[in-house]
Automatic annotation (TrEMBL):
Domain MacB-like periplasmic core, residue spans: 26-243
Top-level lineage group: Bacteria
Membrane-spanning residues: 20-46, 272-295, 316-344, 382-402
InterPro entries for the chain: ABC3_permease_C, Lipoprotein-release_system, LolCE_TM, MacB_PCD
UniProt record similarity statement: Belongs to the ABC-4 integral membrane protein family. LolC/E subfamily.
Protein name: Lipoprotein release ABC transporter permease
GO biological process terms, semicolon-separated: lipoprotein localization to outer membrane; lipoprotein transport
Record lineage: Bacteria, Pseudomonadati, Pseudomonadota, Gammaproteobacteria, Alteromonadales
PANTHER family per record: LIPOPROTEIN-RELEASING SYSTEM TRANSMEMBRANE PROTEIN LOLE
Amino acid sequence: MSLTWQLARRFRKSRSKTGFLSFISASSTLGIGLGCAVLIAALSMMNGFQKALEERLLQLVPQVEFSAVEGPLKHAAQLLQVSRQHPQVVAAEPIINTQGMIQRGSEFVGLQLTGIDLQQNQTVTQLHRYTDQASWRRLQETTHGVLLGQGLAERLQVSPGDGVTLLTAAKSSAKGAANNWQAPRRQRLTVVGTFAFGGQLDYQQAYVSLATAQQLTGLGDQVSSVRLLLNDAYQAPKVARELGRHVQDFVYLDDWTRSQGHVYRDIMLVKLVIYIVLVLVMAVACFNIVSTLVMTVQEKQSQIAILRTMGMQRRAVIRVFIWQGLQNGLWGTAGGVLVGVLLAWQLPNVIQVIEQALQVKLLAADIYFIAQIPSQLRWLDVLLVAAVALLMSLLATLYPAWRASQLQPAQALHR
């Protein structure tokens, strides 16, 4: 083993007169290193997007929600009790969802209004994480208070303490009324503050207390939906189906994979593409290893022949050229992993510098739920990239090494 390693190092260090062989060898090492660095950084970026999805988006949108098809949930208490007994359910809360229009002066804006139980909200929707403590306290203390998304508040040009008018649809109880609709309900609300989640929710979402929502919708002491928070958000479809068997009302059975699942699927699709690109990039980089070793075999025919006449076995010759090719892979992988890890750790800062230099914004806060490129380094991805690079380097050495072992000493020395 020591002899074959030393011979491989000597063959690798030797240079042809033109330097062309050393150039191909260096390009193969550089290609492998560059591929490892870029792929580690790209995978870390996609891991960052997945983490942001789990920690931000899934904390505000319902993970599992049972909504009445029409009117209130008649057996909401039983559904809450059954849900809280499920091992995957961390918390369950009753809510009211309704649509309406908010008026400020001559400005009318449509919005989604959610009435929440302010005593349980800290364990379910986590809204308190996206607003300041003063706004959260005012929402709890104000009888008809409303918490607006920051974008919605800026559009209406309102601040805490200002009054707005909320219009919600109302049905007529009179028989024979056209479509059973009547004039919308109007309710004067006081703006208690804003929340800043990011993306379109800041422009179309508002929150009130559950009692205020019950008064606005005329549901009395009933609710229209039950929302769940889970231990594992990715179990949402399974949990929804299991609990759906115990629901006695006619409900819409929803989970986040239906409303926001396209975001997660996009992230997973990009990660799959990156894994495919990983193999292809390494394969292209390793073609240079094949070229280097084939040219080395041609150049070192006489040395190989002398070694064979001195008693070196074919297996030892194969190991010499395998070691030589792996050295390119080892150096390239080590350098690429080091650069990739450093780049992944500093990726948000690097992207910020690029944005400032080019005067562009890659992620607009008013569209996406995050304002900058995230990054989360996972050592499993680093090991995977390194393993694929070394495996491809090893495979690239097999054919040239086999050709070297097939040289006939007499013919090689005769040339």
